[in-house]
Structure formats: C-alpha cells, structure tokens
Design goal:
Blueprint: H1 16-26, E1 30-34, E2 43-46, H2 57-68, E3 78-81, H3 85-94, E4 98-105, E5 111-116, E6 122-127
Parallel strand pairs: 3-6
Antiparallel strand pairs: 1-2, 4-5, 5-6
C-alpha cells in the first residue's frame, strides 16, 4: 500500500472570486482552509473521497461519445459523484456553467451529465445507478 493519504488537485483560475463561488457555493464543496496572503489567494475545498482515474485516448473518446456525443474534453476532466446529476447540472448552469450535453444513462448504469465551469474545466456529474 502506498503512503499517499490525500489527493489534492490545484486549479489555477483567471477569476478567483467566480471560481470560488462556482465550486464552493454552487457545487457545494466545503471550504476547509484559506491560505491567502499578500502574494496570492488560495482556498482549499473538501471534495470528499478522491480517486485518480487514468484513461487511454480510446477510453477518453468512448466516455466523451457517451456523455457528450463527441470528443470535447481535454486531458483533465473533473468527475463528481452527486445525489442527482441532472439537478446538479441545472444548478451549475444557473451559476454560470455551460451545458456540454444533457444527462445520459451510461452503459455501466450511472446517470452522467456534462457541464463546463466558467473557468473552462469540464465536469462530469455522476449519480450511481
């Protein structure tokens, strides 16, 4: 077993206030630290349990085709397990996200919705079937 005890993703964003409002307030990630200083702003948000999912190009194309109908994501896509992916997608679009594709049922039985955050990050919102 590895000694890794936490996975932390660091997003560099152009509009810090907008990103904070989107991820903390609209998506509902709890703020657990604010390490901002005169040299820059940083806030840590709790996203629950973290996993790292690695795709090859073929799998990325397959998932994009299922969720969005075409290849649309870059090398990083943020996936979040939520209670109701369709409802959360509507909330995030109301908070400034762009709908990439409507919710779909995946071959593995989850209901996934794809949005693009105001900072450009694509998010898959998934509800386990």
């Amino acid at each position: 077993m590895a000694d890794v005890t936490e996975l932390r993703l660091a997003f560099t964003v152009q509009d810090f206030d907008q990103a904070l409002a989107f991820y903390r307030d609209a998506l509902g990630l709890e703020q657990v630290a604010d390490w901002s200083s005169g040299s820059g702003r940083v806030v840590v948000l709790d996203a629950g349990r973290a996993t790292l999912e690695l795709f090859d190009q073929a799998q990325a194309e397959t998932v994009d085709a299922i969720e969005a109908g075409r290849r649309v994501s870059g090398t990083v896509r943020f996936a979040v397990k939520v209670a109701d992916s369709a409802d959360m997608a509507r909330q995030l679009v109301a908070a400034g996200a762009a709908q990439v594709a409507p919710p779909v049922m995946t071959p593995w039985g989850d209901r996934n919705a794809r949005v693009q955050a105001p900072d450009g990050m694509q998010l898959t919102l998934f509800t386990v079937g």
